[in-house]
Every structure is written in structure tokens, then in C-alpha cells.
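Translate sequence into C-alpha cells.
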Amino acid sequence: MSDKFFFKGRRTPKPAYGESGYNTKRATKPGSAASPLTLTVTSEERKQEIEAIVAEHKLVAVIQVDTQGEENIKALTGLLNKPKTTTFEAKPNRNEPCPCGSGSKYKKCCGA
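Result follows.
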């Protein structure tokens, strides 16, 4: 439709790339190489503990040692304590055998 001529010889403008539905400004995943975590710890021993945790979970972090300030590892704890999705087992259909092991159909045994 963009190549057709309409009244008075005007051409239909083509839509811009940014308006076509592509999400070009996606947020990067925290803890990746593009967006490393910024953590602050109070001692060198604590830095080694945090480095071990970061390496275990395959994350990228910039860890600074500040003996005078407070420890700030909220970004790391937020990533590690993400809630898990709960999944449920599928309920058997009416004419399938009952999962309790009685041998009868589910609708006659436990599905009543």
C-alpha cells in the first residue's frame, strides 16, 4: 500500500522502524556482562564469600570493599531469593484408572 499513489500524487509514508512493534529498548538481565551487579562489602573475607556465591550462580558482579560503610548486597539477595513458580499435577480424567491404586475408574472411586 505504501507504493500506490493517491489523490494529488502523494505517496503513503512508510512507518518508521521504531513504530513497527520491535522492542529495541529491552532491559538487560541484571547480573549479566552487560549489566553487572554492584555490591559493597565491609571486609576482604566477606568479598571472597560473595565472589564464591556469584561464581556458583554464574553471575557477573563488581564487588567493592568499604571498611567504613555498610554492606550492600540487596541486588544479589534479590536475584537469589526469587520466588519459584508453583506447579500442580494434572487431575486425572474421569475414565482413567484411579491413582489411589484401587483399579476402578477415577469417577467411581475418588472423583465422586
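Note: The first strand starts at residue 37 and ends at 41.
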